[in-house]
Amino acid sequence: MSLLQAASEGPALIVCNTCRWSADEREDAEGVRGGARMFEALIEAAKGDDRLAELAIEQMPCLFNCSQHCSIHLRGPGKIGYVLGKFEPTAEAAKAILDYVAAWLESAEGVVPYRQWPEGVKGHFIVRTPPPERVVVS
Fold it and tell me: How far apart are alpha carbons 122 and 109 in whole angstroms?
């Protein structure tokens, strides 16, 4: 059995569904991981948002960023990708993430000017990733 399965070839937001609820707790009072709650919040926040029509919101277990939970990976063809973390699994965090994603989708290469970043994503960037067959030169 393969660990890998087919995923969207277009722009995608990958959510770590096994991220901890908090630094001290793995799960909430109902036994659900923070990453699973973040996935639910992102799906709910994206409903009806035409800016995100081409975005796939997908989930996978463990992005190996456990100390900076809840983590997401933003990726797409020809665009710089990003891993963000240190989120609380809330509707407010999901909205800020998706507002950033909307600006990222509009960008030519995945670069959103800092002045356009929602407050809720500032301080949450962990790493940027080059698209396949590309590197960043500036």
Answer: 20
Residues in contact with 64: Cβ distance below 8 Å, sequence separation at least 6, in sequence order: none
Q: CB under 8 Å to 75, separation ≥6 — which residues?
A: 11, 12, 14, 81, 129, 131
Task: Identify the pLDDT of residue 53.
Answer: 95
**CB-CB contact of 102 with 44 (8 Å):** no
Residue spans of the domains in the chain: they are 12-129
Class of the 12-129 domain? alpha beta
pLDDT digits (tens, 9 = 90+) for 32-71: 999 999 999 999 999 999 999 999 999 999 999 989 999 9
